[in-house]
């Protein structure tokens, strides 16, 4: 967040929350309402707060009434950022409150805050950094090639990816250089520290590595970064997608979560390791075990769209195998030991199955809670996997305790709905409302070909 924001520079404030479908919803207030935005907040219906699916259909759940009832979205102006000096538009994340002034049980930002507080009680501080992957398209052309879509007047248009590879090449960079440099400057202006960006593999794909921060700030930064990137794309006549599979058959978009934990200032992932653990210490192992133990039940929180499960396939670097390994990009959890002599600063765990269709507050809350739980109950991790799990036979995978994630959103939602752990951590109202919202998407899109789903949702995240 750009701390140097002066109230006089702000002309309007976009008060935004990410809903249970993973969509950023917004209310825009004029300058004179800034103070009330952060005290009384703005009125939002339960539907906009929690119950719209990705395609704006109302979800039904006994946990929340879609028609009767309001919530207040209260801007956290300590996390406010000015988006650019010319427009004077600022952005702030909202916490959602019930009308009686208590935190709403389905507020996802508050759910993350509660998990961070639990960690603090256990004398642990988590650091989180994201790899934000996206696909950038040129302005639509009514031609016979590119990914199909429909424009505002319903005409079938074609979207061409803005780069055509090769991966990590200067050539691909140059194709989107103006956008990329504009994005870098705008992210820095908004106060989102970027470590680096590069053209990723797959047409039109870019990856921005966001610097590690405390968990809540990191997720706020991610939400803000997506707003910033969308604005810069728009200013360059481009369209951007954070969907897990924007183009079927191309490389997918993940939103990997890099996680470390400090106790009394020391990175627990850099502690001395037992033999055979490739540098992963005792508490680090417990974190890994905790995350893997809850992954099958919680995977719907790490993505939760129909396309998320089209992404989670072997040989896609999406970490679809429930196991861990040092430096291994096909395991759900990659242990990153860091350079020699730099482990204290660099060692982290990368949780790869997460993607841009998630509500990132919930995804990170679920990951941190599982890691914390692993430490608390002294969970024991499985043996590390040092090969591509996709090259092992079914019997070899079984022998090593490697599981596959649920194959589709419907199955993943059943697992989440009956997960006592996630109900305890997030509360019944939040889990029930989340499952209803995502089940709505499953019912609308679960039976369609991935191409049709990509066409319907690629520009909604
Ligand atoms: N950065 C990478 O390792 C590639 C990740 C891959 N695009 C995914 O969907 O997760």
From TrEMBL:
Pfam families: Gln-synt_C (PF00120). InterPro entries: Gln_synt_N_sf, Gln_synth/guanido_kin_cat_dom, Gln_synth_cat_dom. SUPFAM superfamilies: Glutamine synthetase/guanido kinase. Residues 108-461 form the GS catalytic domain. It comes from the Bacteria. Keywords: Ligase. The keyword Ribonucleoprotein does not apply. Belongs to the glutamine synthetase family. This is Glutamine synthetase family protein. It comes from Agromyces aurantiacus.
């Amino acid at each position: 967040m750009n701390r140097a924001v002066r109230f006089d520079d702000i002309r309007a404030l976009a008060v935004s929350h990410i809903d249970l479908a993973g969509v950023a919803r917004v209310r825009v207030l004029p300058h004179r309402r800034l103070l009330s935005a952060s005290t009384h907040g703005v009125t939002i219906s339960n539907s906009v707060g929690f119950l719209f699916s990705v395609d704006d259909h109302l979800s039904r759940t006994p946990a929340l009434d879609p028609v009767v009832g309001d919530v207040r979205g209260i801007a956290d102006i300590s996390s406010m950022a000015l988006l650019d000096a010319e427009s004077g538009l600022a952005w702030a994340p909202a916490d959602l409150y019930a009308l009686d002034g208590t935190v709403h049980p389905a507020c996802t930002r508050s759910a993350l805050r509660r998990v961070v507080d639990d960690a603090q009680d256990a004398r642990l501080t988590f650091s989180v950094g994201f790899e934000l992957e996206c696909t950038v398209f040129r302005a639509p052309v009514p031609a016979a090639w590119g990914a199909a879509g429909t424009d505002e007047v319903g005409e079938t248009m074609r979207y061409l990816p803005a780069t055509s590879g090769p991966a990590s090449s200067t050539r691909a960079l140059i194709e989107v250089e103006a956008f990329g440099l504009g994005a870098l400057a705008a992210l820095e202006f908004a106060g989102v520290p970027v470590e680096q960006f590069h053209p990723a593999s797959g047409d039109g794909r870019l990856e921005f590595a966001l610097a590690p921060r405390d968990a809540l700030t990191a997720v706020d930064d991610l939400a803000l970064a997506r707003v910033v990137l969308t604005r810069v794309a728009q200013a360059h006549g481009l369209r951007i997608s954070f969907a897990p599979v924007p183009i079927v058959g191309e490389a997918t978009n993940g939103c990997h979560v890099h996680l470390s934990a400090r106790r009394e200032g020391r990175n627990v992932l850099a502690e001395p390791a037992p033999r055979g653990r490739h540098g992963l210490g005792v508490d680090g192992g417990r974190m890994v075990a905790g995350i893997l133990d809850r992954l099958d039940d919680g995977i719907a929180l790490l993505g939760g769209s129909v396309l998320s499960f089209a992404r989670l396939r072997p040989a896609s670097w999406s970490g679809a195998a429930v196991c861990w390994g040092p430096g291994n990009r096909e395991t759900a959890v990659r242990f990153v030991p860091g350079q020699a002599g730099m482990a204290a600063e660099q060692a982290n765990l990368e949780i790869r199955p997460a993607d841009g269709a998630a509500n990132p507050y919930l995804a990170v809350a679920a990951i941190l809670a599982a890691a914390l739980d692993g430490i608390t109950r002294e969970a024991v991790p499985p043996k590390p996997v040092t090969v591509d799990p996709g090259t092992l036979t079914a019997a070899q995978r079984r022998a090593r305790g490697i599981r596959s994630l649920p194959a589709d959103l419907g199955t993943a939602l059943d697992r989440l709905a009956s997960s006592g752990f996630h109900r305890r951590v997030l509360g019944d109202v939040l889990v029930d409302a989340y499952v209803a919202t995502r089940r709505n998407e499953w019912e609308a899109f679960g039976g369609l070909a991935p191409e049709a789903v990509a066409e319907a949702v690629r520009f909604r995240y």
